[in-house]
Amino acid sequence: KKYSVLEAENGAVGIVKAIENKPDVILCDVMMPEMDGFQVLETIRKNQELQHIPFVFLTARPDRSDIRKGMELGADDYLTKPFSFQELVNTVEARLQKTDSFQNEFHNKLAKLTEEINRSSVHEFSTPLNSILGFSDLIVQYINKLSPEEIVKYSQIINDNGKRLKRILDNLVMFQKLNSKTLLDKGEKVKQPFFINREIVQDTLYSLALQYDRVNDLEIDIESS
Description:
By secondary structure, this protein is mainly α. The chain has six helices and three strands. The protein has helices spanning 11-21, 37-46, 64-73, 85-141, 148-179, 198-211; strands at 26-29, 55-59, 77-80. A three-stranded parallel sheet has the order 1-2-3, with helices on both faces. The longest helix is centred in the middle third of the chain and has 57 residues, at 85-141.
């Protein structure tokens, strides 16, 4: 394999070049002028466009405390000097293969999720929508016969289902963005975590359980991160 290599004379220049070129892997010495490797790594991990690029430290001091500090800051691997050219190539290829594997897994799961959502989206929309239409029609037709308590109760049901419908729509929009890669930049942000609202998860699971007549069997236990 052929690799295009960019060199930097110090950590500060390296960060600038990383921002400009978005490399697939960053190799960084621990001891450097201007900024040491730990400062470079910390800066890289704070940058949204760079934070998920594999980062490998090169060091002549395989000190445990240094290695632990690097791993805590988000280093992916260490190469201890002296190392052979083949060891360097093997390390780079291992990082690239891991990234490719993660990307393939991500896209496969995304495809399956998108397919499932597209298949069940009509049902997910129709359940809360029918509830909104039904109870709003009930209020309009029998407004003079309903008690204030009943009006409040039915209005609350309409409101709850309206919120549920919005959450389902937000969920679909999010997956559509993922599917069209508007949240991805040439695969560089594949590892960027995203968070789904707890209620979106509950509504989606409830809709699927309702679709297969398994609501009574549904148990949801969501752990907050």
